[in-house]
Design a protein that fits this description.
Chains A, B, C, D, E, F, G, H, I, J: It comes from Methylobacterium longum. The structure is a homodecamer of 94-residue chains. The first copy, chain A, is 32% helix and 34% strand. The N and C termini of chain A lie close together (7 Å). By secondary structure, chain A is α+β, with helices and mostly antiparallel strands. Chains C and D meet through helix 1, strand 2, strand 3 and strand 4 of C and helix 1, strand 2, strand 3 and strand 4 of D.
């Protein structure tokens, strides 16, 4: 089941650089693992912003929530979620 | 080159049903042709709305504009466009 | 799986009263059938508005979309959907 | 009498972790006690956000205000309240 | 129990003048009866707008909803409702 | 002359508790004095928020401004003002 | 007593041209009479819009409301009002 | 050439009082000098807010920008600018 | 003197096609004449919308207003204007 | 390929002046180099604000993103991007 997720990241300047770097590395590893597992189906950078549009393929709303709140940068993100359904004109199944 | 496109459709009640049906059929044919050609890479319905999120893969801003304004339902759509860039954590190229 | 759904109804004055009445009766019958089936778990009127907050319990985003677009008054509604997850402090399962 | 309540939580990074943990534990205990008493009728997590939709069943606006301001995390919440009325198509009484 | 109610009136130009005049007269009579009964405690015009701020003193959310939807001009109003509680610094009871 | 005033209070966590308590006590005393004098005609708490709707009865815009900026909590408030006029359906004079 | 007033005019295409022209002429005459009387102290066109910023010098909120609702184009305007006070750095009295 | 300028001032609590006082005194002197020179034609306080509406009479957009950025409190202001044109119903030239 | 102008066009479906076509042709001729004269310095289509960003080089706010209101499609446009100043890092004069 | 870019700069007061000055100098050098190279085609200050409208001429969305994120002041900017297409009435090619 697919969800469009918009993430806006805002890491405060008060976070020590070392900790920020570690969080970003963890975030990258987590994101790549979930992409390889098929859960994080698409990940695009929004041009000019520290933000992304992502498509998640998860089993349920609960699964989505757990996946998102486990993001290492979650405490610094503003997230909005849009549930996606099959479009009647799409040639591929969701 | 990828763009996230949000389309909200609002067909006025004054449009004769026959014309509306014809436009919708044309829209579907056009959408499926562009999907097969790879230009309209993704098409998802937003649950509960006459709206969609789409990802277009086009050569340029001009190509995108021509593609969108050629939509049979374009006169009845409110469209917003977000240019997408490669995300450093994405495991696939855009 | 639960979704919070906000529906705002705006029936145009140009719709003949007979047709509006028929649609409202159909809407009521449909709403009550779905409530009895357990799909439309809660339905509350927003005080002072022709609007409601509803909670739907459906199998998927697709199921939700089909259920909402089948509403007899759907063409006259503005709908927004919020996916709900289990709250860790809730004493009941969703 | 029912109210839809939307709570968005934003605990500042400057709050010591120990104090934050204590407040969260108090919040959970308070929320569960009110649910058992029937005052906090529903509590749902909004997927992807540190936010919830809740339905309160209280005696009055004053009762609601006292209940909400007594939340241990109240100082860190942005709250909005929507009064709910009986929907004519609802099969259950509020 | 008190509620702040904001009403914005927008009577379409297509409504025949005779019917609009009759509705306005009914609205005035209804408003004055409810003020005399104590239910519509305050009624103020917003300077420069066809809008008002009102305070209603009703028994419940349901009572408020029934009172507002019975307004003769209700179909032409956009209404928002804010539940009011006793302010700790107020010298009068609500 | 009446004005609807909406006040939203946001006392920063960095303000020492002693100073905050003193300001709140001063605010209460000031509010009650003005209510007794008839200048602050109504004061209602917005349910669930550290905010109020108030009606002021002052001689002029200048009088209103001086009255509001003299509020002990003024530096921590976001205030919006709506001038009120006599409503033709009101049974009482403003 | 001064008020900043923002007026946005939207004359519907369905209004017969003759009637629109008559209303505009009436509006102009009314505006110029009030300017000569000193009530409509300033009148500026917002560049690129059918809108204006105006400053009114009236006796009260009621006076302002009556003045504005008597505008011949009032039914086609969206008006917002901001009460002005003496600025401590102004070298002229309001 | 005239411009309507809206200035909202927000001096952070962390600015030492002495420095804030000096900036305010400088701001007042600067504002009064520009008023005497005719460049800052009007200056009104918005009732209930640390904000003003001002009308500037300057030679160009560049002149306006230099004038505004030279405000001693400029770093603490949110400014919006609306270019004004001669209104056809105004009895005075801009 | 430069201004950034955003124009959003919304031609109602009720306008006869012949009249709409004539207006569009007039608009094009007018736009091209002003570009050749140097007044309409830039004109860009916003991808996916019946809208444009334009830069005008005019003598004054009045000149801009007259230029914009003379647009054949002006009655069907929503226009917003941003005055531009010389940027200190720009290598070219405005 | 052209993009309209809006940049709003907000340098926190906590950034040491020396570092802010260095960043601003770097920003200026970077901006001027890109202008000379033709990538940053236009750069205009928004009158009264620490903001600009810019037009970039880049090869792709990725090129734009890299160019913008390399801005020395990027961490202190809020950026929005609008893709531009050739306007049919423009006399010059984009």
């Amino acid at each position: 089941m697919l969800y469009m997720v918009h993430m806006l990241v805002d890491i405060p300047a008060t976070l020590p650089k070392g900790e920020a770097d570690r969080l970003k590395a963890d975030e990258k590893a987590y994101a790549q693992r979930l992409q390889r597992e098929g859960k994080w189906r698409h990940l695009w950078r929004i041009a000019g912003q520290y933000a992304n549009y992502s498509v998640f393929d998860v089993a349920s709303n609960d699964d989505l929530h757990e996946t998102l709140t486990a993001l290492p940068l979650y405490p610094y993100m503003t997230i909005s979620v849009t549930p996606l359904a099959q479009h009647p004109s799409a040639i591929a199944a969701n």
